[in-house]
Amino acid sequence: MTYPTLRERRVVVGVCGGIAAYKACEVVSRLRQAGAQVRVVMTPNATHFVGATTFRALSGYDVACELFGAIPAVEIEHISLAEFGEVMVVVAATANVLGKVAAGICDDLLTTTVCAAAGKVIFAPAMNWRMWQNPITQRNVAALQELGYWFVGPECGHLACGETGTGRLSPTEDILDAVDQALGPSDSALTGKRVLITVGPTREPLDPVRFLTNPSSGKMGMALAQEALARGAEVTLLCGPVTERAPWRAEVVAVTTTQDLLEAALARHDHADVVVGAAAPADYRPKTVAPNKIRKDGTGLTLELEETPDVLAALGARKRPGQVHVGFAAETEELTASAAAKLERKNLDLIVANDVSRPGAGFGADTNEVTLVPRNGSSRRVAMADKRLIAAAIWDEVEELIRRSSHRGGQ
Prior knowledge:
Layout lengths: L9 E6 L8 H10 L3 E6 L9 H8 L13 H6 L2 H4 L2 E7 L1 H8 L6 H8 L3 E6 L3 H5 L1 H12 L3 E2 L3 E4 L5 E5 L3 H11 L11 E6 L4 E4 L2 E3 L6 H12 L3 E6 L11 E4 L3 H12 L4 E4 L6 E3 L18 E3 L3 H6 L7 E8 L3 H11 L4 E6 L11 E8 L5 E7 H24 L1
Parallel strand pairs: 1-2, 1-3, 3-4, 4-5, 8-11, 8-13, 11-12, 13-16, 16-17
Antiparallel strand pairs: 6-7, 9-10, 14-15, 17-18, 18-19
Helix pairs in contact: 1-2, 1-9, 5-8, 9-10, 10-14
């Protein structure tokens, strides 16, 4: 996943004194690669695990370690760490730091910065599983969550002590997702909305070892989920067989065939405020599935195919007033005309058309260029860009549809 929305955003990374402190290096590096401005503040104990020089090189700025005298005076006069950060993420948060913040104790630069932070604070804990499960730690976590602090993880896995349990630091991608979501707009029409998105290809089995499918990677659907989460939506993903990672906080439901996708979508459709059909379900499936592997016999193979269910059309037939339906049209010719016909046929409010034959706009690409065709209004072309930026343009259009619907309802 890419994070173009982090460009020029201001992030403070706090590093605690635990064995997982070295993983904060990757967090800082990835934030910088995304174009964020990063400042690092460390506890004195953290410097025993990773030197401040490393974070200075990765962030491009001096590292704050001591409560007194660590930051040049000129910087103190103009901007403090707490004022600088639009968001602060603490990696890897120890039981000690969580306990001190929960109790309001500020006895080092990191805890002081957390308590003074004006923006969202995110904790990414890592510790021995016994420490994480300790009732005092759990009490502190619950108190911090109630106060509005975010927690990413920890996960269950192999720990530095050689044991296995819950206490492993969450993946860097989850931490970046949390930062991305914390920096999302506060006035979005998507805030609190329930969004259902279908993602990726489906597979139609021919025999136990073969299937029909297409090259959809799921990147566009995941980008849509990323952006919706950043705008405050609750997102459920119906995912075909994809290798793309789902963003942090998205609910994921795995499906394989188009029939699986249809059943999962119908089961969740009525609870959704917005439904987005970004998946590329197979249009045909073998009429007969062989119970055993079909072997070569020198005579060739003829397949008899039948159409799979039309998922978007089935959902469109159940659309309720106020619900927004969005579809995609992956075309190779007559782009706008084909998209407009599909919009009517499937009872959509908006269709996103793209020419998959164009370089950089097809399956598996990190970029896309699309034409947005609303049911009421003029079509709008969105030039080639990162799929996350394309997703932002799509959600802008959807938000306008939501506002119009709310306005009509208010009248």
